Please model this.
Amino acid sequence: MPGPLRDAARTRRVLLDAAARSVVVHGAGVSLDTVAREAGVSKGGLMHHFRSKDDLLAALAGHLFEQFDRAVEDCVDPGDLAPGRRLRAYVRATFADLERGEDAGELATLMATVSSFPEAARGTHERYRRWNDTLAEDGIDRQRVTVVLRACDGLSIAPFFEGPLGPEELASTRELLLALTRGDGPLV
Model:
């Protein structure tokens, strides 16, 4: 039955997108009624897919990570076989978001709010730990991985505090981080 499965998957995406918009506007206190209205479904329809707000927000956190996972995979250079290739893809995916002008404030608000729920926080911490492990297994020193990841994370929310970053600043910072992924051995 491909039709109903596709509809269920499409409905789930609509619900997650509505949850993201609702959380940004209403914060952690957002109700399932509000999310259902935003999605154009009944509360019962929402609860058919997600048993509780915790369940919905855990799925939303997973959805956001899956989107970024795909973005990173899309940024892996097939001709790059050197150690650190996945970390370079992570840098490129981070900067692609920044260069498109993704709203850092909205994403920071969304991730902070979602991560305040225990199930979502557990999933977020687990996925981030897996990213750290995957990137460290990519052949470069863990110090380099840590510094580059933290820099990318900080850059992702920098516009929230500083305003938009200019193209020259983005380009020079991206090149600096990419250079850090090409060295071997620890930084200090």
The two ends are 58 Å apart (CA to CA). Residues 1 and 170 are 47 Å apart (CA to CA). The chain has a mean pLDDT of 87. The chain is about 75% helix and 0% strand.
